[in-house]
C-alpha cells in the first residue's frame, strides 16, 4: 500500500504494464495526470501533438506495428471526441489502444450544469466505440482498473479501451495498492471434432486457399506450416500482409489470389473477416466450401461458414496441421500441380498490375531502395490502394493500414507512432495530398520529438479517388474534390523539415536515398495528375473501374 495521487496511481499502473511512451495533449482536467507523467519522466516518455486525433493515431500506429498496447491521454469532451475516428479505426483493426481521459469534477458528474468539456454521458459515448471502458472514481481504484484495461485490451480479440477520471481525483491523495498484470482470458482451445472435419475437407480439396488477416500476425510459422502441407496459397489484403511474406511462393496479394479464386474449392480464413470471399469476390465458385479459424466466436455468426473453429490463429492452425498430417499418415500430399498454379497466378498478377501507372513505378523504386524490414503505412489514396497489392511485404505488422474504416488522414499520424516504436528502422508514410493535410501540422511533432519518418505525399491537387468516381458516375461534375494546395516545399521548410519535389519515378530514387540518409523527418512530394493515374480498383474489387 502506498499513498499517492490518482494521477500517480495511473502512471504507476501504466509502467507496471510495460508502457514507456504516452502520446498526450494536456488541459485542466488532466493536469494531475500530466504532472504525474512529469514526475515519472525518467521512466515514461511523453510525446505531445498538435491535435488530439494524432495522439490516438500515434498510439494506434505504435500498437499495430508492435502488437503491444499504445496509450494516449487527452482532456474529456472535445479532446476525447477528437480521437473518436482513431478509436473506431483501432476497434476495426483490433489494436490494443488505451485512451486515458478526464471528467468534470466528481460533484458535477451527471448534473448537466455545463461544466468545462462536459458531455451528456462520456462513458456511454466511449463504450459505443471501444471494447471496454470504465470510470476511476478514486485513486485507490486506479491500480485495479488500469490492470483491467490491459487485460481487456490484450485478451482474446484485442481492441481499444478507455478510462476516465473526474478532474478532482487526479490530484487527490489515496492509498493505492499496486496490481500486477492480470491473467489474460484464455481463448477456446480448438475443438478436436471440428478440426477433424476441416482436416477431412482439406485432405480432399484440390485447390484450397487460406486468407490470413491481422489476427494471424503472431501465427506466421503455424500458418505457413499448414499452407505448405496443404499446398494452399496464403492470400492477404491489408493487416494480414507479411504473415506469409510475398517472397515466399505461397505468399499472395489479393491481386494474385483473385486469379486462383475461380478454381478454389475450399477457402479457410485465419484471423480474418474474410472480406474478399464474403463480399468482394462473392459468391465464389460453385461448390466452394468455406471455413475459418477465429478467436472471436461472434465472427461465426457474422459470416457463417461450413466449418468454424473458435481458437487463436496459431493454436487453430497448428491443430489443423496436426490433424491433416494424421489423415495423410505422415505421407506428403502431392501438391505439385497446385504449386505450379499458384506460381503462375503470382507471375500473372505481377504482370497484370504493371499497368497501374505511375503508382507501380514509384512503388517499385520504393521497394528497391528500402530494406526488407522497413514499415509502410498506407492511406486512402492512389499509391496506398496500389500498395495493398503492389508493394511486397516481408514481415507481419510491417504494412500498417486503417483497415475497413478507410480513415482518410490516419496514415501520416499513425506512421509517426510506428516510427516512435521503431526509431532505428525506416518507416514510410504513403499519403495523398488530401489525407496528408488532415494532420500535416504534426510535422511540428516530428521535429520536436525527433521522429525521423519519411513522408511521401502524392500531390494530384485533388481528393483524387473521389474525383475519379465523380467524373465516371456523375457526368463529369466534381463537387468538393478539387484542392488548391499550399506549396508543400514551403510548408515543410516552415517546420525545418528537409523536402524534395519529384515529378517522375526517375527522380524518386535519389530523393528517397537522401531522405534515408538524413537523420531528420523528411517529406517527398510526388507531383501527379489524377487524370494520368491508372485506377487500381479492378485489382481490389473485380469489375470496378
Ligand atoms: C475520414 C474520411 N473522410 C472522407 C473519406 C472519403 N474519401 C475517400 S478517398 C478520398 C480522397 C483522398 O484524396 P487524397 O488523399 O488526395 O488521395 P488521392 O485519391 O488523391 O490519391 C476521400 C475524401 C474517407 N475515406 N475518410
Ligand atoms: Mg490527392
TrEMBL record:
Keywords: Thiamine pyrophosphate. The keyword Kinase does not apply. Residues 385-526 form the Thiamine pyrophosphate enzyme TPP-binding domain. Residues 4-124 form the Thiamine pyrophosphate enzyme N-terminal TPP-binding domain. Belongs to the TPP enzyme family. One of its GO terms (molecular function) is flavin adenine dinucleotide binding. It comes from Limobrevibacterium gyesilva. This is Thiamine pyrophosphate-binding protein. InterPro entries: DHS-like_NAD/FAD-binding_dom (IPR029035), THDP-binding (IPR029061), Thiamin_PyroP_enz_cen_dom (IPR012000), Thiamin_PyroP_enz_TPP-bd_dom (IPR012001), TPP-bd_CS (IPR000399), TPP_enz (IPR045229), TPP_enzyme_TPP-bd (IPR011766). Residues 195-320 form the Thiamine pyrophosphate enzyme central domain. One of its GO terms (cellular component) is acetolactate synthase complex. SUPFAM superfamilies: DHS-like NAD/FAD-binding domain (SSF52467), Thiamin diphosphate-binding fold (THDP-binding) (SSF52518). One of its GO terms (biological process) is L-valine biosynthetic process. NCBIfam families: PRK08266.1 (NF006122). CDD domains: TPP_enzymes, TPP_PYR_POX_like. The keyword Glycoprotein does not apply.
